[in-house]
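Structure (tokenized):
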């Protein structure tokens, strides 16, 4: 027996309670898809499409059917979810049997048991856009009221995803900066060792490291780290 839809207010509250740092971007994406399926009446499966640098992929989905329906669009380079992502608006397919804007996709969708669909744009940030995709088994599942609910849900979801994406990007940048600082520190140590051994300048010491890295086909940082390791007491 199908479960009654989740109260939209409860779904919006849950999206607002997501604590960044405790959950990753993938978990936020999956939760958005799951809540959409539970909240919006008529939804059989839901998914989230993300588009970055012109490449689209399904970042979260509640069932294989949703993923397949998305990927058929990516393979053709056109479809409702791609249009919604590009425009930031909604793309509705009221009846897959009567759809003529994307006939090849609609034919495959009907064969998979799709009756109707609704994709709502998710403006996450300038570099990344997406769409919330809702798939239903029956035609005309998304009336104006359901469409308005889906668009409101997508607005809440977009905020949660934008915050999660920003947090994830910031955390990744911080990790890269820490790694870069660590690399620079060990290279400076190695340069100091070479300068002391050869009585040469910092530029000449760096050239020695660079030449060794090239000859060994190894990263400069690894060559430096090995030199530092060898001169430590006890080695």
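Design, position by position:
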């Amino acid at each position: 027996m199908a479960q009654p839809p989740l109260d939209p207010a409860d779904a919006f509250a849950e999206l607002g309670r997501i604590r960044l740092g405790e959950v990753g971007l993938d978990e936020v994406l999956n939760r958005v898809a799951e809540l959409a399926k539970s909240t919006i009446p008529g939804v059989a499966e839901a998914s989230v499409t993300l588009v970055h640098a012109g490449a689209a992929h399904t970042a979260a989905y509640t069932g294989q059917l949703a993923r397949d329906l998305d990927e058929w669009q990516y393979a053709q380079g056109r479809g409702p979810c791609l249009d919604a992502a590009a425009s930031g608006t909604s793309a509705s397919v009221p009846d897959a049997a009567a759809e003529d804007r994307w006939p090849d996709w609609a034919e495959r969708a009907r064969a998979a048991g799709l009756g109707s669909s609704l994709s709502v744009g998710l403006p996450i940030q300038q570099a990344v856009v997406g769409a919330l995709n809702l798939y239903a088994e029956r035609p005309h599942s998304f009336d104006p009221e359901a469409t308005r609910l889906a668009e409101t849900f997508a607005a809440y979801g977009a905020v949660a995803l934008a915050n999660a994406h920003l947090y994830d990007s910031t955390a990744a940048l911080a990790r890269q900066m820490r790694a870069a600082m660590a690399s620079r520190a060990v290279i400076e140590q190695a340069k100091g060792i070479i300068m002391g051994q050869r009585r040469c300048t910092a530029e000449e010491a760096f050239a020695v490291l660079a030449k060794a890295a090239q000859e060994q086909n190894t990263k400069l940082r690894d060559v430096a780290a090995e030199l530092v390791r060898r001169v430590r007491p006890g080695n």
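Reviewer-requested clarification: The two ends are 69 Å apart (CA to CA). The longest strand covers residues 128-136.
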